[in-house]
Amino acid sequence: MKHPDDDNELFNRLEAEMGADSKGDVVDLDKARSARTESADGAPDASPDSAPDRSADSKLTESADPSERESDDSGPTLVDRPEPTRSGPGLIDRIRDSKRLDIIPVWMKSSAEFKDAMGWLAGHVWHTIAFHAVRVPFLYVPKLIWRSPSGLVNALGRVGRWAVDAEGEPLRAEARRENSELYLKLSRQRDRRVRLRMLLTILGGLSALVVGLFLVFGADLTTQVIAAAFTVLTLGWLGAPADAPLATRAVIKTEVQKLTSDIVVKAMASIGIGQITSAVAKGQDGIRFVAPITREGPGWRADIDLPLGVTVADVADRRARLASGLRRPLGCVWPDADPNEHEGRLILWVGDRDLSKTGTVKWALANVRKHDIFKRVPFGIDPRGRAQSVPMIQHNILVGSLPGQGKTASVRVLACGAALDPSVELWLHENKGTGDLDSLECVSHRFVSGIDDDSIRYAADSLKLLREEVMRRAAAIKKLPRDLCPDKRVTRAIADKRSLKLWPLVGVFDECQNLFAHPKYGKQAGDDAEFIIKLGRALGVILVLATQRPDKDSLPTGISGNVSIRFALKVAGQVENDMILGTSAYKNGVRATSFRPEIDAGNGYLAGATALPVVVRTAYLDDPATNAIAQRAHALRKAEGTLSGHALGEDTDSTSGPSYDLLADVAAVVPPSEKRVWNERIAARLAELRPEVYGGWKGENVTSALKPHGIKTTGVAGTTDDGERTTRRGIVRDDLTKKIAERDENRGAA
Questions:
Q1: How far apart are the C-alpha atoms of 174 and 183, rounded to whole Å?
Q2: Looking at residue 138, what DSSP letter applies?
Q3: Which of 94, 304, 504, 568 could cross-link to 580 by cystine, CB 3.0-4.6 Å?
Q4: How far apart are CA 172 and CA 650, in angstroms?
């Protein structure tokens, strides 16, 4: 490379020396430069052609006007040197910057992946053994017995052909036709062989006869049975046809085509990127492989440098075409970027099977007794089978998708991870009313499940209380000494000091669109949530929001624009995609629209938890598994004395008006003689008892108010005021008294 300063100086000096009289002259700078070089070496060129150049170069030795040089900037900038120069890092630097491959495979260094691999291997071996063990007495042995006569005939035939040297007959027949002398030699050789083999056959037959007579007349019964079984099974084995093996396969291996560079190049050329297509048309590859194609997990990995100007997002945008070019299902092809390299470095991973066919992903904490929320919460696996987790402390999480794609199941995993830390205070709001989070009610400080106005009001009140809690925590953090809280944020040590009341607080709002779009409570709830998201993360207050309708009305932009971790399952379009995953996510190739409805349920893009967005198949917890986790979490909280609020049967609705005891009030208006009572009658009696609290209540209000306490409504037969017999929704008084007794017992234990 030429140095720009040298050539600029040369050009300016020439311009200064030539002046106005030589404006029409053209100076060959290459010749002038070469002349200058030769003059410096003391060997000027004597040819006439170089004279003007030497004179021009000699003018350069004279001083030119500096102002004239500096003022003339109209000339071209030359950047190349005539002689090569050494540039770039040295040998040691290049070696130091090179990437070292792992000595031990990644799956062996990860305890979870190693256990999973060993568990699969043990299961595979056990399946094979059990498969054949079941078939030995009922299939394999009868088959051997059936084939034993054929085996006897085959054995005698083989011995006979060996004794008479039948295998050499084709060669002797050919020699008889072609070479009589060779035929005579082969005949004499055959005679010698036959004499020896016949002798051995006779001796072997006599030995077999002696052994057989001994087994029949001289051996005990056990030896006879063993010998007979061995003989029959051996003859059965010899009698097996070549096209009918004895044992069937315990596992049928699915053959997957090996990924090769030729396959990748052809597939990349077919996706419609001009730089690659034109390069392939000229006989080039269009892409460069920076490492050998290797196995990684249950698939193949190719590290590729894309052409200049082509990014990974361009390829991800054409994932369906790439899958077609590779002749693999869409769920097997995953182009990703390398966060440690440039934007044109593509990691193409092609799985052996579709991610949607991976099956149910077992949650890593399903059988764990306790978890620390200050550590990442296991969330699922990526297409390569690697475990993916989510940090919750100092983060807020947004989950969105179309209905039925696994949104609530993803929220349940996060809620269970928080529940396994007994220091966490859980506020659960399930504003769908289907009871998806009911199992965790026993560990919740605040809990509601419903879509009615009272449930929405309860959730809105929770956000108001959380806002007040954030402000209280901010003041408390400010007062802490620097040695205890140097970064002004909640840590594990601070959370463990119960006297500070700064333990982690996780608020879950499932189907939050029903809250934020509510005509009465929605606007204030959105403002409160935005305030909490912006300020609460460093103070230990975490919001987990889930929605199936991400738009500006049901998900305010102040919320969607400030959450730090986002998880998008299947969504309808670009607007919904960017509302959840962030602005320009769709443009950058992070497209949750590419997931297939129902087929890819549970698969989504996780952004914010890793350096780059990654596809994750979430772990799944059904209701029994969630209930088992909740019971362990309840036992932990009970042992450490951290049960509070709703989990103890206490009324936590401190923003709804005067304090009251709902269960006690219901018991007061339902006498012991009334075993079953309609909810509408309870509402009327409560309104008479406390009009300032229960005024305007109807039967539905009683249903919603009693549900968080575990009192379910049922059909109750009764008589109306008009004397008509009918059945309406009501409660059983024994259920009410039972819940009151349990609550009082828990309070006493606390």
A1: 8
A2: I
A3: 568
A4: 104
In angstroms, the CA 97 to CA 93 distance is 6
Amino acid at 196: L
Six-digit token string for 367: 């059988």
Q: Out of 109-118, 357-366, 553-562, 732-741, which region has the weakest mean confidence (pLDDT)?
A: 109-118
Q: Which residues contact 321 (CB under 8 A, 6 or more apart)?
A: 270, 271, 272
3-class DSSP state of 208: helix
Distance CA 351, CA 222 (A): 55
- Spatial distance between the Cα atoms of 429 and 440, rounded to a whole number of angstroms: 11
- Of 96-105, 420-429, 649-658, give the range with the top mean pLDDT: 420-429
Name the CA radius of gyration of the chain, rounded: 42
Question: Do residues 567 and 579 touch, judged by C-beta distance below 8 A?
Answer: no
User: How much is the pTM?
Assistant: 0.61
Burial class (CB in 10 A: 0-12, 13-18, 19+), 230: exposed
**Would you state the structure tokens that stand for residue 342, as one six-digit string?**
């440039």
Burial 437-476 (b: 16+ CB within 10 A, else e): bbbbbbbbbbbbbbeeebbbbbbbbbbbbbbebbeebeeb
Host H or E run for residue 628 = helix 623-640
Burial degree of 183 (CB within 10 A; 0-12, 13-18, 19+): middle
Q: b vs e for 45-68, b when ≥16 Cβ sit within 10 Å of the residue's Cβ?
A: eeeeebeebbebbebbeeebeeee
Q: Is the pLDDT of residue 62 over 50?
A: no
The encoded tokens of residue 736 equal 């009410």
Is residue 408 a contact partner of residue 510, using CB atoms and an 8 Å limit?
yes
Give the integer Cα–Cα distance in Å for 513 and 66: 72
DSSP character for 136?
Answer: I
Region 74-95: mean pLDDT is: 58
**Distances from the Cα of 306 to the Cα of 283, 291, 425, 526, 732, angstroms:** 16, 13, 49, 44, 70
> Would you say 275 and 344 are in contact if contact means Cβ atoms under 8 Å apart?
no
- d(Cα 108, Cα 97) in Å, to the nearest integer? 25
pLDDT band at 77 (very low <50, low <70, confident <90, very high): low
CA–CA separation, 490 and 177 (whole Å)? 100
Per this entry, what is the length of the chain? Answer: 750
| List of residues 6+ apart from 17 with CB closer than 8 A | 56, 59, 60, 62, 64
CA torsion sign for 461, 558, 478, 425 is positive
- Phi and psi, residue 425, nearest 5°: -100, 115
Q: How far apart are CA 86 and CA 84, in angstroms?
A: 7
Q: What is the mean pLDDT of residues 387-403?
A: 93
DSSP 588: T
Which amino acid, one-letter code, is at 353?
R
Check the CA dihedral 638-641-646-649 and report its sign.
positive
Pairing of strands 541-547, 603-607: unpaired
User: Which residue, chain included where needed, has tokens 């859980």?
Assistant: 426
> Whole-angstrom Cα distance, residue 403 to residue 571?
9
